[in-house]
């Protein structure tokens, strides 16, 4: 069973960092898929804090390599404050996105909490993309392609400073899983920065079990485990409701194993669920699948094992 029984849902309904509209509807789609009731059915206390509010999406082109930078900063400051408040109260925050730029606010808050409580941090980044772009490298200027770089200190001052410390995290706390789409300049930068990446070829060759054993290695009772779950991590055949589909992602069974192995550690302390775009979905099936996988993260076992 998880060591955290008190969960807070925090909606961040914006697509401010994305290249397609619609991730702003993600929180409601997850609620429609009964995320609160499903977690509650496992004996967890769930409080839905409702949605944060922030600036609308002006839908403009990039300025100095960044699209919508002031609005992205405003949203991430609000996410940071909300996530940090839940952690400080001893609760487990689930940030319902919104696009993945919001991971900047969320993970900087987790890192700050870890500094304040003397804990080590491990971040699992489940994603088809490395999200390690900079203004110099990005083809688009969309900030949802930059959060890991920003968290590691590479990006505009207003964003890298949100957590009160630059860099918010060291690259060696991150394990990226499921990666299969990286821009050429971004690839060089990832290698330079020493990010640990378990891409789809690694998963295909070594299997999800070995991949997760590697990604979770070294966790102890002093480690706070944060999972940043971009729904485009999943194969688009099973999860069409995302703006940036990349073929060849984990299957349903691989994704279940990934989540169950995270649950088995008992260390999960915070979660992002991002990039769900119900405008591109089919009968909310991607949201239902996401909730099913989140249920596994919190200990729903699909297996007939004696506990």
Automatic annotation (TrEMBL):
Its EC number is 3.5.3.1. It catalyses: L-arginine + H2O = urea + L-ornithine. Binds 2 manganese ions per subunit. The gene is rocF. Pathway: Nitrogen metabolism; urea cycle; L-ornithine and urea from L-arginine: step 1/1. GO terms for molecular function: arginase activity. Keywords: Arginine metabolism, Hydrolase, Manganese, Metal-binding. Coiled coil: none annotated. It comes from the Bacteria. This is Arginase. Belongs to the arginase family. The keyword Acetylation does not apply. Its cofactor is Mn(2+). InterPro entries: Arginase, Ureohydrolase, Ureohydrolase_dom_sf, Ureohydrolase_Mn_BS.
């Amino acid at each position: 069973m998880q060591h955290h029984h008190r969960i807070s849902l925090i909606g961040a309904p914006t697509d401010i960092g994305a290249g397609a509209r619609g991730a702003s509807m993600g929180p409601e789609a997850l609620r429609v898929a009964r995320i609160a009731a499903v977690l509650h059915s496992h004996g967890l206390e769930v409080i839905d804090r409702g949605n944060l509010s922030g600036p609308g999406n002006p839908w403009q082109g990039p300025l100095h390599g960044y699209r919508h930078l002031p609005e992205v900063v405003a949203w991430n400051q609000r996410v940071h404050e909300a996530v940090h408040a839940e952690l400080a109260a001893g609760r487990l925050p689930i940030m319902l996105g919104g696009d993945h730029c919001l991971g900047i606010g969320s993970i900087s808050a987790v890192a700050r909490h870890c500094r304040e409580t003397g804990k080590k941090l491990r971040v699992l980044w489940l994603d088809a993309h490395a999200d390690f772009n900079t203004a110099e490298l990005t083809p688009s200027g969309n900030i949802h392609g930059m959060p890991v770089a920003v968290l590691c200190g590479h990006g505009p001052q207003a964003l890298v400073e949100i957590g009160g410390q630059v860099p918010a995290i060291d690259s060696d706390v991150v394990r990226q899983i499921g990666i299969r789409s990286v821009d050429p300049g971004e690839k060089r930068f990832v290698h330079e920065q020493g990010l640990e990446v378990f891409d789809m070829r690694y998963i295909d060759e070594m299997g999800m079990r070995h991949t997760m054993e590697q990604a979770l290695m070294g966790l102890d009772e002093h480690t706070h485990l944060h999972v940043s779950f971009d729904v485009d991590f999943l194969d688009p055949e099973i999860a069409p409701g995302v703006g940036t589909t990349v073929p060849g992602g984990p299957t349903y069974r691989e994704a279940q194993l990934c989540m169950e192995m995270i649950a088995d550690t008992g260390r999960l302390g915070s979660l992002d669920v991002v990039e769900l775009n119900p405008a591109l979905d089919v009968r909310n099936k991607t949201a239902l699948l996401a909730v099913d996988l989140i249920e596994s993260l919190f200990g729903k076992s699909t297996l007939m094992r004696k506990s």
